[in-house]
């Protein structure tokens, strides 16, 4: 054991003469060996995990042995060097944790050694503790100036050396740990940066995808309404910046698309919309925008055009392209579009108005026959506003009960007696007075308001006839005829509604006749047979109205059991003196008789028409020759008067004909 109280004298006081020459050489060789090949403690202690890797530089071998033994005993790995050059070589090769460096050495003193260590990139971080007998302040200042971290003055106490070595090793360990932590932190920062970059890229991708989804149609991948309206606003802005700038909006609506959906299914319908989008895209070139607005509606923004002819030319190309049928698996679908066109100018200030006017023109194209285009004009807008106003007033009229029923008698052309009344609706407008059905029925049919109007008329008519039967008619077999619209006929609860009204009004179902136009059957072919059977089982009579004015099918007349066929007034009005249409009326009467139906001629206005119709075998007639439609009181008076019309003459009763 080395004594803790041993004091070491100045190394330079002992010269090589104190040692034998051979002993000095042997000691030098030993020091070089241990400097380059330390394996553990120098005193024979077994090698273990050292506390620190130290290099002692001193040109005095005794000092080297003493310090090496003491530091080995404390568990440090110790290397030794006798001069500055060897110290630099060992430091570069072994990279010790700490260097104990003597100052006063031959050839290269400790200051120069430290300077060279600090100048080299590889060794500059190795801490150096100076060991010296020099005790001047300037020597210490110079030691710190060249890069020393501590200074121990000789002679020294071993405890001081050990403490300062332990302190520097602790500092170096802390620095190493800090470097490790910094390296780990830097690595984590790099990893996190990469992760953040990925997250940001993914978020941007998701945002771009969401933006694309928000501005594009999921079925066809076309721009949607929001995208289209944004581009439309930009086009309007250009008209303010460039007075000569023109663009057009084409509003496309697929004709008969509902029939495709209903017959082939929605999946085929979706495929048809996709195929339509692709076909339209082939006709267009940037910067023209094609968008799907929703359902079966598309829109095209045609920019920077010379005039409306560019838009109509494109519409014609679209119609020509749509003539070619679509092949969807085994289905070949013929399909076209109705197109409304509006020219964008600086007169427009809102994009919604442009789309509105294009939509209005499109509906006008549909009304004129479909598969065509129509250019918007101001008159269309005026009609659209009038339509909207009329619809609003109709809804209010239903709430305020502004409708009234008028009754027009139907007369037997054989007996001249009244056999039934047809219930006709009138609108008693608070400002415009009485409005005929022709003025509001188209709006009611298009908006669906015809359904509640039909039900109201049916209920009123059944109730009134029941009152007449109980109070006036007694057992006289007078019936009431009520018109049933196409929309009402297609209602799934039609039979239940009829049963409810008949039960409510206590009218015998045999006294009710329903008048149906041909299109009601054609549009509801599947359900018509079932409805007819249910009506017949209730002994409700059926009349086909306005025969010959629309799509007339003999197969429908044969399949469905009608009681009466009504000859439209357009045929009756022309069988006057020139006998025009006489053969057509004769054919209709003969057809009805062959199918077991009676006939009613509408619009009889002259005695001559009455005579000719009777001669043709027509059983019944109605028209202004007999009476205009009457209010309830006037109709009651006519029933009480019990008029009779003879051939060519008006009533022979005391009734005042209105």
Structure report:
α9 (about 265-285) packs across α10 (about 310-320), α12 (about 380-400) crosses α13 and α14 runs parallel beside α23 (about 630-640). Mean pLDDT is about 85; it is low at about 1-35, about 40-50 and about 650-658. The chain has about 650 residues and is an alpha/beta fold. It is rod-shaped, with a radius of gyration of 56 Å. Helices cover about 50% and strands about 15% of the residues. It folds into 3 domains: about 10-180, 3-Layer(aba) Sandwich (Rossmann fold); about 225-375, Alpha-Beta Plaits; about 410-640, TIM Barrel (Alpha-Beta Barrel), CATH 3.20.20.450. The protein has an 8-stranded mixed barrel with strand order 13-14-16-17-18-19-20-21, surrounded by 4 helices. Strands 2-1-3-4-5 form a 5-stranded parallel beta sheet, sandwiched between helices.
What number of structural domains do the residues give?
Answer: 3
| CATH overall fold name of the largest domain | TIM Barrel
C-alpha end-to-end distance: 148 Å
CATH architecture of the largest domain: Alpha-Beta Barrel
Which key phrases capture this entry?
disordered N terminus; Alpha-Beta Plaits; rod-shaped; eight-stranded mixed β-barrel; 23 helices; Rossmann fold; single chain; 17% strand; disordered C terminus; TIM Barrel; 50% helix; five-stranded parallel sheet; 658 residues; alpha/beta
